[in-house]
Amino acid sequence: MDGNNSMKRAKELLARMSLEEKIYQISGQMLFEVEDDYEKRRNHKEGNYRNPGHFMHKGRPAPATPAEVTERINRDVQLTMDAHPNAVPPIEHGEALHGAQWGMGTCFPQPIGMASTFDDELVAQIGDVIGKEVAAVGVRQALTPVVNIVRDCRWGRTVETFGEDVLLTSNMGVAICRGLQKNGVIATPKHYADNYSYGGRDSNVSDTSERTMREVYLKPFEKCFKEGGALSVMAAYNSWEGVPCSANHRMLTEILRDEWGFPGFVVSDYCGVEGLCDAHKMVDQHWKAQARCLKAGLDVNLPFSSFEKTMTAYREGWLTEEDIDRAVLRVLNAKFAMGIMDQPFADGEAATALVRCDAHKQLALEAARRAMILLKNEGVLPMSREKIKTVAVFGEGATVFPVGKNYSGPYGREWEAEDAKTPLEYLREYLDGYAEVIYATDDYIEEVAAKCDVALYMTTVVEGEGMDRSDIRLPGVTHKVQKDDSALIVGKFEMDIKTDQEESIRRMNAANPHSVVILLNGAPVDMSSWIEGSNAILEAWYPGEQGAQAICEILFGEVNPSAKLPITFPRSVGQLPLFYSMKPSGRGYGYVENDGSPLYPFGYGLSYTTFALDNFACENKDDSLTLSLTVENTGNYDGAEIVQIYLSGRNCDVSMPRMELKAYKRVEAKKGETTSVTIDVPSEAFFYYDQKMSYGMHDGDYTVSVATSSADIRKTFEVQVRDGKLI
Predict the structure, then answer these.
(1) How far is it, in rounded angstroms, from Cα 267 to Cα 300?
(2) Torsion angles phi and psi, residue 438, rounded to 5
């Protein structure tokens, strides 16, 4: 819908509303149990609601179907419209981190796996499917994507992110936002901004300078708004420059709206407004917190009702009706712009036909194939079904759906589907008629591994919201972790690993040199105690509902791994924080124990084949570059290489990062084939903030590197910027 028309209609509707109606439009509600007394507890005047579909599955013998979810949401929408004098439907919102989370939608790889594909087009397709499956049941706002930049992988929510790089995160975030928005779903990038701190501690105070905030942490958000069209954003729990993000006028008004021209509305993270009082101690009552946040530029308080708080703030003179109107208008504009006012209901039959249809599951499979990274291979992989007769399998990761616990299923129930397979189940089907698969506990590693042709160990790590780490080794028998339920939707779960995984891997490697470690995780792990004896390591991440098939296909060479690391793997926790695009040290980078280099660098990933890059050329177009080259597959397998373009600046007005990713392209080539490749490096790649914090194409000299990882440079070119032009 035309933006001017939606705003015109929003203003007309606002003029007809009473003060009470307006305040309800910027208030929300969430009820955990959908039981017989549900509608008595539900206040249908609330303008924002955590969709009931998310809570329908708990305690049922089978999950609610898409049609049942649609029916429940449609009824909620109808009752809300009936309760409102102007028949305004609510915004039904929910999560969609790597799939629609109102129930059992198609489950894609976790975002860290999506980023590993370095494939913007693939992630755009994923975003489109997620948008369709969110909208199919009537959910019209998704609290996603997470576009926080990870510079310390101890942060428990690393799994939710696209890694450490600004460009990669921005592109992935834009792709997801576009997919949601074009399907009538309001995208909500989060958490705005810089919401973890020293040691990877979630939601801790940010003392990041404005320079670093603008160079790194704000850029993906700006891109999601300007290029992805996102019409909402979630304020983070933490403070910046002494003020919590939910009440930070500098962040919510001066930067977001005055500078970037953001037309959408700001929602709080759950109970973030109350945190101004309870956690940050800036005010002594919740209604004062509500007033401070609305004054600063926040619009909607999620998830529980803020009606009385807002009304009290108005009566006490802390808020004016003009303050309230400003927030309400933004919400109404989004409702008109996204078609919620004109098409508030969903079609249950259509939802049934769409959700987890064959095409969507096939896309989930392709995403899983492209998300897995071969980290090490000393002649073990790929294996042959025709040659092996016995396979030993160990590790708890083999017996669960490889989706990860983080935002993967509805409330009170993990993601499930009758046609989904665990890695162990799929491996047995895959090798049926070829080889025997023996699954054993770690107590029997030596006995079982030694008598089998190959041995596999599939790890397990519980991580996510509220589960930051001080130790990044694989958890062992000494680790028992219980996460409380302060994270409202993720809920409470426990981790009790009954074996020392690192010791088990060492024992397996010793018993059988033809062993493979398959990492099922969401963040880098310390491999220092077992990597030396390991001959093959596959980083599978949490690859989603089709991940079991993708793991088998890669292990046996049907699919050639092509993914690259979107985040640096340190040698040990003592190297953290560690990321590739750091600014130069005034002295050095090393430690007594090592030279400071990572275990595996950003952009790294092996293949079963080899690639030769040649015939390089660089064309200068005054304000941008065009790089051309050929990629030849010189090995014995069809495959794909990800060509990466980095810039290193010197003689600039400020100290620049040692190198930064500025472009990339996935290139597929069959064995023996040579492919011509063209990659554009836009003018913005040469923009930076000078000493006066002016952003532009300032003078500098640059090395342009064509690479296959941040540590594997194949060709360099030298260019200069003078007076805003490349020379």
Answers:
(1) 5
(2) -115, 115
Contact, 501 vs 460, CB < 8 A?
A: yes
Q: Strand, helix or coil at 210?
A: helix
Sheet holding 28-29, edge to edge: 28-29, 48-50, 91-94, 141-142, 186-187
- Measured CA to CA, the distance from residue 614 to residue 423 in angstroms comes to 39
Q: What is the token pair recorded at 199?
A: 């040691």
Q: Which residues of 143-168 are buried (b: 16+ CB within 10 A; e: fewer)?
A: bbbbbbbbbbbbbbbbbbbbbbbbbb
Q: Containing H/E element for 640?
A: strand 639-650
Q: How many other C-beta atoms can be found within 10 angstroms of the C-beta atom of residue 342?
A: 11
Place of tokens 């954003």: 233
Across 363-392, b (16+ Cβ under 10 Å) vs e yields bbbbbbbbbbbbbbbeebbbbebeebeebb
3-state secondary structure (DSSP) of residue 192: strand
For the segment 580-596, what is each residue's pLDDT rounded down to a tens digit?
999 999 888 889 999 99
Residue 590, amino acid: G
- Quick one: pLDDT band at residue 485, thresholds 50, 70, 90? low
Q: Where are the beta strands (DSSP E) in 169-277?
A: 186-187, 196-197, 201-202, 232-235, 239-240, 243-244, 265-268
404-436: b (≥16 Cβ within 10 Å) or e? bbbbbbbbebebbbeebbbbbebbbebbeeebe
CB atoms within 10 A of CB 46: 23
Tell me if 150 sits within 8 A of 158, measured CB to CB: yes
Q: Which residue reads 């704000």 in tokens? A: 218
Query: Token pair 């599978």 is at which residue?
Result: 540
Question: What confidence score (pLDDT) does residue 621 get?
Answer: 86
Crossing angle for the helix pair 423-430 and 547-555, to the nearest 10 degrees = 50
Q: CA nearest 577: which of 587, 589, 565?
A: 589
Q: What percent of the chain has pLDDT over 90?
A: 93
Which pLDDT tens digit goes with each residue over 699-726? 999 999 999 999 999 999 999 999 999 9
- Residues 191, 502 contacting (CB under 8 angstroms): no
- Main-chain phi, psi angles of 430, to 5 degrees: -65, -35
> Per residue in 630-682, pLDDT tens?
999 999 999 999 999 999 999 999 999 999 999 999 999 999 999 999 999 99
Beta-carbon contacts of 227 under 8 Å, excluding residues fewer than 6 positions away, are: 174, 178
pLDDT digit string, tens, across residues 373-402? 999 999 999 999 999 999 999 999 999 999
Question: 88-128 pLDDT, tens per residue?
Answer: 999 999 999 999 999 999 999 999 999 999 999 999 999 99
- Which tokens sit at 92? 């039904």
How far, in Å, CA of 425 to CA of 621, rounded? 55
Amino acid at position 600, single letter: Y
The CA distances from residue 445 to 290, 330, 449, 462, 476, in Å, are: 58, 60, 6, 23, 16
Residue 498 confidence (pLDDT):
74
Q: How many residues does the chain have?
A: 727
Integer-rounded Cα Rg, in Å, for the chain is 26
Select from 233, 214, 126 the least CA-distant residue to 178. 126
CA distance 608 to 373: 11
Contact call for residues 654 and 690 (beta carbons, < 8 A): yes
**Cβ-contact 235, 191 below 8 angstroms:** yes
> Which of 242, 239, 231 lies closest to 267, judged by CA?
231
What confidence score (pLDDT) does residue 480 get?
56
Q: pLDDT tens digits for 198-257? A: 999 999 999 999 999 999 999 999 999 999 999 999 999 999 999 999 999 999 999 999
DSSP 497-525: --S-HHHHHHHHHHH-SSEEEEE--SS--
Cβ atoms < 10 Å from Cβ of 695: 12
CA pair distance 248, 239, nearest whole angstrom: 8
